[in-house]
């Protein structure tokens, strides 16, 4: 009997391609007509044009050049078109900012205009269902969520739970010592860094933690944040810019819907547990969820609001800090002279009888410089989270129409030879005289003196930067204090390729973490 053939993944992909092809032809006509007869949105009332940029293909624009390592294409175009240029992707106009002064002029000085977010189909509408702080437009809902988030993330709040960050950093080093068999067995530090970041966020958001990298929540939470990054690259999803694709079944829409469901089930489920425990009169540690439940009536947050706000913390606060610890671990074995200088500084300032603490940071400028240099060389979000403008704006003679998506091209800014000499070399010395925290450096009057742009800019700047800096400091200074980090012979570490689409971390690698002396075991209490 003849049966309908089973639809395989390749069938679905071919059908999608066919639909895209048909849609391309139709849209090409629309595109030609629109650009032929309607240039109104491309010029302001005085006739000032939008900045130039690459000429893309009909329908999809410059999309094919941005599918892998988009920051490299943005960098190449910035050399050709200058520090502010346009890129068209489907129906969306982007502008790419590659200069600190332009970033400041638009995102800081004109922050009331340039602090909104475009409601992208996948990220904002499908995965976050119009909620959450990260993707919401610049409105009262965002202000409310930002205020609630700040209550747990500003520097004063971070002081109140620094003991948690301190504890998790020690656990990280203990686990690396133990599972790396005191330097006898090769170890991949990546999942350990992931669990350290995860535990910090779990404690802040839910007042809980995992007790081992084998705990099921570790794999689940890390998978959810990685899937989020891979579904929401700012310039990587055709579905966001070709409205037709949003109406037909396609793998990205399916993944987005599934991710929304998984986030609400996982983090919404954890909220319901806390609600039940509070109702039963149990003692629940102070955490974001407890605050939200207790202030629910005055704040008017529903369950979905809370689940998505928690998801934003669990996504924004885990993959990011873990990625910095991972890049550090991948880089340092290749630079024994950097490591030797770091060890000498630690031994001189901290000694061998205790672990470094947050109070030591100001006295350890070289370790501080190593961290800034890792962040300059390996920003986990080269494209950041784009802003959008709520009204037309003309700047330096270029028209920026309302609803343009503005991307901070941090790759180009971090590799600008006039600011960072010999920019492709890993050289912590360049930050030796910069004793600012990145959260302080972001407020410097001269934007060319800012250390790096990893945390974004303006009113949407990362509110998690205080906690991020502190946890990264504790983890990295303690790993350096405890271990000689060495490459495994015959297993070179790839520092060029990345894992992940938007949030980037090194491809899996192994190193040897040799305890520096007998004191390590004693101080770690093992
Ligand atoms: C290395 C660590 C981190 C990096 C590189 C990073 C980077 C960023 C960037 C680039 C933005 C967008 C800024 C802009 O729009 O200009 C952002 C926003 C955000 N980050 Fe972070 N982040 C980090 C850690 C954290 C942590 C630990 C949290 C804690 C929950 C966090 C929570 C958020 C939130 C909620 C937003 C959205 C802010 C808004 O739209 O108003 N981030 N982050």
UniProtKB/TrEMBL annotation:
Membrane topology: Single-pass membrane protein
Compartments where located: Membrane
Pfam families assigned to the protein according to its UniProt record, in alphabetical order: p450
Keyword Iron: yes
Bilayer-crossing regions: 15-33
Keyword field contains Protein biosynthesis: no
UniProt xrefs under CDD domains: CYP64-like
Required cofactor(s): heme
Highest taxon above the source species: Eukaryota
Pathway annotation from the record: Secondary metabolite biosynthesis
Alphabetical UniProt keywords: Glycoprotein, Heme, Iron, Membrane, Metal-binding, Monooxygenase, Oxidoreductase, Transmembrane, Transmembrane helix
Family label: Belongs to the cytochrome P450 family.
Official protein name in the record: Cytochrome P450
Organism of derivation: Hohenbuehelia grisea
């Amino acid at each position: 009997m003849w049966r309908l053939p089973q639809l395989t993944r390749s069938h679905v992909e071919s059908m999608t391609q066919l639909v895209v092809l048909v849609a391309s032809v139709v849209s090409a006509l629309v595109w030609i007509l629109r650009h032929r007869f309607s240039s109104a949105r491309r010029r302001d009332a005085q006739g000032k044009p939008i900045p130039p940029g690459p000429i893309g293909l009909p329908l999809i624009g410059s999309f094919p050049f941005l599918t892998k390592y988009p920051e490299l294409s943005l960098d190449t175009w910035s050399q050709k078109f200058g520090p502010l240029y346009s890129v068209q992707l489907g129906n969306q106009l982007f502008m790419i900012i590659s200069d600190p002064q332009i970033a400041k002029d638009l995102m800081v000085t004109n922050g009331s205009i340039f602090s909104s977010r475009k409601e992208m189909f996948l990220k904002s509408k499908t995965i976050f269902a119009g909620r959450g702080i990260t993707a919401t437009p610049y409105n009262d809902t965002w202000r409310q969520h930002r205020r609630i988030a700040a209550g747990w993330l500003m520097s004063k709040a971070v002081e109140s739970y620094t003991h948690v960050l301190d504890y998790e950093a020690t656990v990280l080093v203990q686990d690396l010592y133990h599972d790396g068999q005191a330097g006898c067995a090769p170890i991949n530090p990546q999942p350990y860094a992931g669990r350290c970041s995860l535990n910090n966020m779990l404690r802040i958001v839910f007042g809980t933690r995992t007790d081992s990298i084998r705990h099921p929540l570790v794999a689940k939470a890390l998978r959810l944040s990685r899937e989020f990054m891979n579904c929401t690259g700012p310039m990587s999803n055709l579905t966001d810019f070709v409205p037709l694709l949003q109406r037909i079944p396609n793998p990205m829409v399916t993944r987005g819907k599934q991710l929304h469901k998984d986030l609400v089930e996982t983090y919404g489920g954890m909220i319901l547990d806390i609600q039940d425990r509070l109702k039963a009169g149990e003692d629940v540690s102070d955490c974001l969820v407890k605050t939200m439940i207790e202030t629910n009536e005055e704040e008017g947050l529903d369950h979905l609001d809370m689940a998505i706000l928690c998801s934003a913390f669990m996504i924004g606060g885990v993959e990011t800090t873990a990625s910095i610890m991972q890049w550090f671990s991948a880089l340092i074995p290749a630079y024994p002279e950097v490591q030797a200088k770091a060890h000498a500084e630690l031994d001189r300032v901290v000694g061998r009888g205790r672990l470094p603490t947050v109070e030591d940071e100001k006295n350890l400028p070289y370790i501080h410089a190593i961290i800034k240099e890792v962040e300059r060389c390996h920003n986990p979000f080269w494209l950041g989270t784009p802003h959008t403008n709520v009204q037309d704006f003309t700047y330096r003679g270029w028209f920026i129409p309302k609803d343009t998506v503005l991307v901070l091209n941090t790759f180009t800014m971090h590799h600008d030879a006039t600011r960072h000499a010999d920019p492709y070399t890993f050289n912590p010395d360049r930050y030796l005289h910069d004793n600012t925290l990145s959260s302080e450096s972001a407020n410097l009057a001269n934007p060319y003196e800012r250390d790096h742009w990893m945390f974004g800019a303006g009113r949407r700047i990362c509110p998690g930067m205080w906690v991020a800096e502190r946890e990264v400091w504790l983890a990295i200074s303690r790993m350096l204090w405890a271990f000689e980090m060495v490459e495994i012979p015959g297993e070179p570490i790839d520092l060029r390729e990345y894992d992940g689409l938007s949030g980037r971390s090194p491809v899996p690698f192994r190193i040897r973490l040799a305890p520096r002396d007998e004191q390590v075991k004693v101080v770690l209490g093992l």
